[in-house]
Design a protein that fits this description.
This protein has 127 residues and is an alpha+beta fold. The chain has helices at 45-62, 83-94, and strands at 2-4, 19-22, 25-28, 70-77, 100-105, 115-122. The chain has a single domain (2-122), classed as RutC-like (60s Ribosomal Protein L30, Chain: A, 2-Layer Sandwich), CATH 3.30.1330.40. The longest helix is centred in the middle third of the chain and has 18 residues, at 45-62.
Length: 127
């Protein structure tokens, strides 16, 4: 098991790791709309979704994986009415790759963000 830490995504804001790599898979912690410097992105679903997916991509790449290797994504939304907007931006990041996915409406998220995502992906160099 390997703990993944990168400065290209926000540091963990609690007692957890950005990701763990084990047995050919990488499991990410939930990513929210913080910049790598720890600044919260404006409360706009488009901006927050782009930041979340950028953070997710950066954590995966630091674990020798990528969005193309994602198997499963879980999306947490404060407002399910944002689902369509999130879907469009999500599709921009994933392209033709379509990992399995769950989307859950929640009452609140850390730092009162609008969206959070975590993922499970295969590691590129695992045989």
């Amino acid at each position: 098991m390997e703990i993944i830490s990168t400065n290209t995504a926000p540091a963990a804001i609690g007692p957890y790791s950005q990701a763990i790599k084990a047995n050919g898979l990488v499991y990410t912690s939930g990513q929210i709309a913080l910049t790598p410097e720890g600044e919260l992105v404006e409360r706009d679903i488009k901006l927050q979704t782009r930041q979340v997916l950028t953070n997710l991509r950066n954590v995966l790449e630091s674990a020798e994986s990528s969005l193309d290797n994602v198997i499963k994504v879980t999306i947490y939304l404060e407002n399910m009415e944002d689902f369509g907007i999130v879907n469009v931006i999500y599709a921009e990041f994933f392209g033709d790759h379509k990992p399995v996915r769950s989307t859950v409406a929640v009452k609140t998220l850390p730092k009162n963000v609008l969206v959070e995502m975590d993922a499970i992906a295969s590691v590129s160099d695992y045989h």
